[in-house]
Amino acid sequence: MTELTTYEAFILASGALILGIIMLVRGGDQTIDASVYVADRFGVSPLVVGFTILAFGTSLPELVISVFANLQGSSGIAIGNVIGSNIANILLVLAVTALFVPMKITVSKNMLKDVGFMVFCSVLMTCILVFSGGVTRLAGFSMVALLGLYVFLQYQASKKESKVQDEEMTVPQFSKPSEAYGFLFFGLVLIALGAEFLVQGARVSAGLLGIPESVIALSIVALGTSLPELSTSIIAGRKGQYDMVVGNIIGSNVFNILMIIGVTSIIKPIPVGGFDAQLINFDVWVMLLVASIFTCVLVLSKKISRMTGGLFLFSYVAYTAYIYAVNLLQ
After folding, report:
1. Which superfamily does 6-161+175-328 belong to?
2. Half-sphere exposure (CA, 13 Å, Cβ side) for 170?
3. CA 244, CA 224: separation in Å to the nearest integer?
4. What residue ranges do the domains of the chain occupy?
5. pTM (2 decimals)?
6. Tens digits of per-residue pLDDT, 144-188?
């Protein structure tokens, strides 16, 4: 058997990346549709579905990617995936949605609590990485517990505020429950396989290009796993559900930090120094800065204009170009 050339290996790795992204998107769509159907069949309210199943569903690709990567010793992909996804959710997903449809946001008390909690989670992750250099199993348990408490309190607060505030939610239709269960199972299998392809493609590509795995995770992997949020946000924006768009971004960022980092470190602690120092010295601070700027724009202007979307998108392109340039020029 002839040995693959570098060019051939790169083509195969790129193919694995693309195939992994396609499988993640298709698997994510099927998992969410089937989950919403099953939840509706068991009488779970749209509010609970939004806080749990939909938020978990759109973050499921990131979760599987991070768990698989950390188990295989690629903690840079696990951490970089979360940081990159949180940056992409605001600077890319929100930006592209605003370019399609400028959004006026109703900033309610609950939304202020949510966005404040998102910034708090960003600060928490920054402090954990900066001061400990890794994530212990105890820290992981604490993050998951905090997420559970947050979801419970928000659900209770929303119930007290109004029992009529649950918006109508389009429930996907299946001919019979067994079909929904089949789609749910098949969607989870697609996500698992897609994650494996994406992780392996990212590791090989990083090695061939001579750049850290974390940079691939911050860009290509994060972009691929943010596609469910992008499609959901554009559809919601075109329907005029602007608060849902913002809620999707906030919820995804909170789940990315507390659930993904938490569950990943519970399964296997993320070791100190197990990833590139750039993630601590630069990227996690960018994530915190982006979350803070988004909060200021939301609270002060109560809208996401096309100009804001354009500036966000330009910032994302500039950030991505910078992290590649710094590593390729070393």
Report:
1. NCX, central ion-binding region (1.20.1420.30)
2. 7
3. 21
4. 6-161+175-328
5. 0.79
6. 999 989 888 876 766 555 444 444 455 566 767 777 777 767 766
